[in-house]
C-alpha cells in the first residue's frame, strides 16, 4: 500500500543579513543579524527584463489553496495539476508591490524529494517573468533549510524559497510543499541544476551554487572544529549519524568526515533520495528505527544522531540512552558558554515553545538570563532574535537552534552536542573512562531536577472527531476552578494558551489547551496541521522530579498516572476511536 506524503514550499524574508566575522581562538563569535521566516519579499533597483519573452498564461483561483503559517503543503499529485504550483507562486508576487522584488535576488533550494526538480524550473521561470534579477539555487536543487538561511544572510539576498514538506515522507504518491488571473512566466530554457555556474537570459541570472560551502563556513565560525576533530579521531570514541536518505546526507560527509575526520562508515543512509528510501524522514524513536536499533544494541557507538527531511530537526542518542528534545536544548544552553566559542560571552536569553518541557526555564533562572515561552512556530523565536533578546531556543518536536540563523538547525544541534562531549573529555587520556551522553544528562538532572516528558501523537485522525474533542476540552476548561482534584493532582489553572509578542505587541490565541497542576505537572492538547491528510492530535505530558533517586525511572512509568488522567479527561478514545498513539516520544 502506498504511503501518503506531502510537499511544502516555504517563502522566506530576510532583513539584515551580514554573516558574523570568522573568529579566531579566544575571539568573540557574535550572532548574525536578523532573518525572519515571514513571507517572500525582494528589494532592489528595477532591471530591464524586456529582453526576455514573457508568456501570459490565463488561470483562475484554485479551490482549497490556502497558505499556512509556513507555506503550502499538499500531495505531490495535487501540485502536479495544471498551473497549481504556478498559481501559488504568482500569487506571492501579486501580493507585493513591484518595487519589493523587481531586480532582487532570491535563494532557491530544497530537500531533494520527488517533484523538487520540476518545481525548481517552474519557480525560476515565474520569478524571471515577474522581474526578479537573480536566483541562487543549490546544485541539483539541494539546500537544507538551515543552509538556505545561511546563504541568504551571507550573500545578502532578499529572500528565498524552500521546497520541502519537512519531516513528512516523499515520493510521487506523497507530500510536497512550498514554504493569483494570469501567470507571468519567462520563455527561457530549463536551467541545468547539476553544474555549478552562472546562466544568463537577458538581464535575468541563475547561479547554481555549492549547497554546502556557505553553511560549512558558518559552522566553522560557531564551533571549535579542532576540539571536535580531536574527539572524533579518538580510537575509543565512536559516532554515527543517520541522514535518513534526506538532505543532510549532502552535508554529512563534507562536515563530519572531510572536515572533522570522522570515519566514513559513521554515516548511515547518507545518499539523498527523492522518496527517502521509502522511509519517513522524521528523526524520532519510531521512524529512525535503524539508528535506534544500533544505539540500543550490544556494541552501540558512544554518540548517535539523526536529522530530518529538510535538515532542521535532530534526535540525540547516547549508548542505550535517549535525550528528549526538551532536555537537549536545556543541556546545550547550560553548557554553551563553556563548550561553544560563539557563546563564550554568555547568552542573551533562552526560549522554548509552550508544549516543550520546563527544563530550559530552570537553566535560564540559574544563568540569570531572560526566558520566553512562545507558541509553536519558529517565527516567534525570530522576532526575539532580531531584537537581540534570544540566543538559544528549542521545541519538543526535535527542533533546536540559535541566533546564528533564523531557522532550527539539525546539524548545528549535533555539532553542539559533539562540542559538549569534546569539551568534557578534552583532558581524558586514551583508556580512561569518557564522559558519556548519559553522564552529561544525569549530571544536568542532578543540578536542575528532571522534567519527565513525553508526547503522544495520534496521526491522521478524522477531523470532525478531533475538533469535537478539543471543543469538549474547552468546555472542561471553562468550568474548571483552581484547587479542583484530577485524580491525585490539584489544578493550579487551565487555559487556552495565548501570547503577546514582547517585541511588536502582536497577539495570538488558541495555541494549545493546558492543564497545569500545583506540583508543576502539565498536560497539553494541540491539533497539528503539519501533515496533508486528517488531523494530528498531540498530547504532551510533563512531571517535574527533584529527587535524584527517582531520576532513573522510565519516563512512561513515571508519567503513566498523568497519561491515564489525560486520556480520561479528554475522552480521546470516545471522540476518535483511537486506543493507542501512532508515535510516542
UniProtKB/TrEMBL annotation:
<keyword id="KW-0460">Magnesium</keyword>
<feature type="region of interest" description="Disordered">
    <location>
        <begin position="1"/>
        <end position="28"/>
    </location>
</feature>
<dbReference type="Pfam" id="PF02879">
    <property type="entry name" value="PGM_PMM_II"/>
</dbReference>
<keyword id="KW-0597">Phosphoprotein</keyword>
<dbReference type="GO" id="GO:0046872">
    <property type="term" value="F:metal ion binding"/>
</dbReference>
<feature type="domain" description="Alpha-D-phosphohexomutase alpha/beta/alpha">
    <location>
        <begin position="214"/>
        <end position="317"/>
    </location>
</feature>
<comment type="similarity">
    <text>Belongs to the phosphohexose mutase family.</text>
</comment>
<keyword id="KW-0413">Isomerase</keyword>
<keyword id="KW-0934">Plastid</keyword>
<dbReference type="Pfam" id="PF24947">
    <property type="entry name" value="PGM1_C_vert_fung"/>
</dbReference>
<dbReference type="InterPro" id="IPR005844">
    <property type="entry name" value="A-D-PHexomutase_a/b/a-I"/>
</dbReference>
<feature type="domain" description="Alpha-D-phosphohexomutase alpha/beta/alpha">
    <location>
        <begin position="326"/>
        <end position="430"/>
    </location>
</feature>
<dbReference type="Pfam" id="PF02880">
    <property type="entry name" value="PGM_PMM_III"/>
</dbReference>
<dbReference type="InterPro" id="IPR016066">
    <property type="entry name" value="A-D-PHexomutase_CS"/>
</dbReference>
<protein>
    <recommendedName>
        <fullName>phosphoglucomutase (alpha-D-glucose-1,6-bisphosphate-dependent)</fullName>
        <ecNumber>5.4.2.2</ecNumber>
    </recommendedName>
</protein>
<dbReference type="GO" id="GO:0009507">
    <property type="term" value="C:chloroplast"/>
</dbReference>
<keyword id="KW-0313">Glucose metabolism</keyword>
<keyword id="KW-0150">Chloroplast</keyword>
<dbReference type="InterPro" id="IPR016055">
    <property type="entry name" value="A-D-PHexomutase_a/b/a-I/II/III"/>
</dbReference>
<dbReference type="InterPro" id="IPR036900">
    <property type="entry name" value="A-D-PHexomutase_C_sf"/>
</dbReference>
<dbReference type="InterPro" id="IPR005846">
    <property type="entry name" value="A-D-PHexomutase_a/b/a-III"/>
</dbReference>
<comment type="function">
    <text>Catalyzes the reversible isomerization of alpha-D-glucose 1-phosphate to alpha-D-glucose 6-phosphate. The mechanism proceeds via the intermediate compound alpha-D-glucose 1,6-bisphosphate. This enzyme participates in both the breakdown and synthesis of glucose.</text>
</comment>
<dbReference type="GO" id="GO:0006006">
    <property type="term" value="P:glucose metabolic process"/>
</dbReference>
<feature type="domain" description="Alpha-D-phosphohexomutase alpha/beta/alpha">
    <location>
        <begin position="65"/>
        <end position="182"/>
    </location>
</feature>
<dbReference type="InterPro" id="IPR045244">
    <property type="entry name" value="PGM"/>
</dbReference>
<keyword id="KW-0809">Transit peptide</keyword>
<dbReference type="Pfam" id="PF02878">
    <property type="entry name" value="PGM_PMM_I"/>
</dbReference>
<dbReference type="InterPro" id="IPR005845">
    <property type="entry name" value="A-D-PHexomutase_a/b/a-II"/>
</dbReference>
<dbReference type="GO" id="GO:0004614">
    <property type="term" value="F:phosphoglucomutase activity"/>
</dbReference>
<comment type="subunit">
    <text>Monomer.</text>
</comment>
<dbReference type="InterPro" id="IPR005841">
    <property type="entry name" value="Alpha-D-phosphohexomutase_SF"/>
</dbReference>
<keyword id="KW-0479">Metal-binding</keyword>
<keyword id="KW-0119">Carbohydrate metabolism</keyword>
Amino acid at each position: 500500500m502506498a504511503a501518503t506524503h506531502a510537499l511544502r514550499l516555504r517563502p522566506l524574508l530576510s532583513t539584515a543579513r551580514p554573516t558574523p566575522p570568522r573568529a579566531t581562538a579566544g575571539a568573540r563569535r557574535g550572532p548574525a543579524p536578523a532573518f525572519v521566516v515571514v513571507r517572500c519579499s525582494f528589494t532592489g533597483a528595477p532591471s530591464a527584463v524586456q529582453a526576455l519573452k514573457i508568456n501570459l498564461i490565463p488561470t483562475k483561483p484554485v479551490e482549497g489553496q490556502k497558505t499556512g503559517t509556513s507555506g503550502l503543503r499538499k500531495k505531490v499529485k495535487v501540485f502536479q495539476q495544471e498551473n497549481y504550483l504556478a498559481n501559488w507562486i504568482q500569487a506571492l508576487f501579486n501580493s507585493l508591490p513591484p518595487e519589493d522584488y523587481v531586480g532582487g535576488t532570491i535563494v532557491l533550494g530544497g530537500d531533494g524529494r520527488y517533484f523538487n526538480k520540476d518545481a525548481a524550473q517552474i519557480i525560476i521561470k515565474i520569478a524571471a517573468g515577474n522581474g526578479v534579477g537573480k536566483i541562487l539555487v543549490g546544485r541539483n536543487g539541494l539546500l537544507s533549510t538551515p543552509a538556505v538561511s545561511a546563504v541568504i544572510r551571507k550573500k545578502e539576498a532578499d529572500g528565498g524559497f524552500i521546497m520541502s514538506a519537512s519531516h513528512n515522507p516523499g515520493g510521487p504518491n506523497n507530500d510536497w510543499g512550498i514554504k493569483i488571473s494570469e501567470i507571468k512566466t519567462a520563455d527561457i530554457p530549463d536551467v541545468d541544476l547539476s553544474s555549478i555556474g552562472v546562466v544568463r537570459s537577458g538581464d535575468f541570472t541563475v547561479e547554481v551554487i555549492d549547497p554546502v560551502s556557505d553553511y560549512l563556513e558558518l559552522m566553522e565560525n560557531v564551533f571549535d572544529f579542532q576540539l571536535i576533530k580531536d574527539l572524533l579521531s579518538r580510537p575509543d570514541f565512536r559516532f554515527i549519524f543517520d541522514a535518513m536518505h534526506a538532505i543532510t546526507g549532502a552535508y554529512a560527509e563534507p562536515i563530519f568526515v572531510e572536515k572533522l575526520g570522522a570515519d566514513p562508515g559513521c554515516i548511515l543512509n547518507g545518499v539523498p533520495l527523492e522518496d527517502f528510501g521509502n522511509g519517513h524522514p522524521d528523526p524520532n524513536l519510531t521512524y529512525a528505527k535503524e539508528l535506534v536499533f544500533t544505539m540500543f544494541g550490544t556494541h552501540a557507538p558512544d554518540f548517535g544522531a539523526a536529522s530530518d527531511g529538510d535538515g532542521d530537526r535532530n534526535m540525540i542518542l547516547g549508548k542505550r540512552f535517549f535525550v528528549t528534545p526538551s532536555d537537549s536544548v536545556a543541556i546545550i544552553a547550560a553548557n554553551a558558554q563553556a563548550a561553544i566559542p560563539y557563546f563564550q560571552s554568555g547568552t542573551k536569553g533562552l526560549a522554548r515553545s509552550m508544549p516543550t518541557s520546563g527544563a530550559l526555564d530552570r537553566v535560564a533562572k540559574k544563568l540569570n538570563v531572560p526566558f520566553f515561552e512562545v507558541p509553536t512556530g519558529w517565527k516567534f523565536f525570530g522576532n526575539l532574535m532580531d531584537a537581540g533578546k534570544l540566543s538559544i531556543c528549542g521545541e519538543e518536536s526535535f527542533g533546536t537552534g540559535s541566533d546564528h540563523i533564523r531557522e532550527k538547525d539539525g546539524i548545528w544541534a549535533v555539532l553542539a552536542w559533539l562540542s559538549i562531549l569534546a569539551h568534557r573529555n578534552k583532558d581524558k587520556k586514551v583508556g580512561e573512562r569518557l564522559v558519556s551522553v548519559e553522564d552529561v544528562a544525569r549530571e544536568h538532572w542532578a543540578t536542575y531536577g528532571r522534567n519527565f516528558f513525553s508526547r503522544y501523537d495520534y496521526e491522521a485522525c478524522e477531523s470532525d472527531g478531533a475538533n469535537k474533542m478539543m471543543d469538549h476540552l474547552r468546555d472542561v476548561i471553562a468550568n474548571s476552578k483552581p484547587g479542583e482534584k484530577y485524580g491525585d493532582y490539584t489544578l493550579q489553572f487551565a487555559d487556552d494558551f495565548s501570547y503577546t509578542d514582547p517585541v511588536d505587541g502582536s497577539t495570538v490565541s488558541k495555541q494549545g489547551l493546558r492543564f497545569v497542576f500545583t506540583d508543576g505537572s502539565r498536560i497539553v492538547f494541540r491539533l497539528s496541521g503539519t501533515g496533508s491528510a486528517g488531523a494530528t492530535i498531540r498530547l504532551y505530558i510533563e512531571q517535574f522530579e527533584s529527587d535524584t533517586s527517582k531520576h532513573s525511572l522510565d519516563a512512561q512509568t513515571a508519567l503513566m498516572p498523568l497519561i491515564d488522567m489525560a486520556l480520561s479527561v479528554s475522552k480521546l478514545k470516545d471522540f476518535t476511536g483511537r486506543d493507542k498513539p501512532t508515535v510516542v516520544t
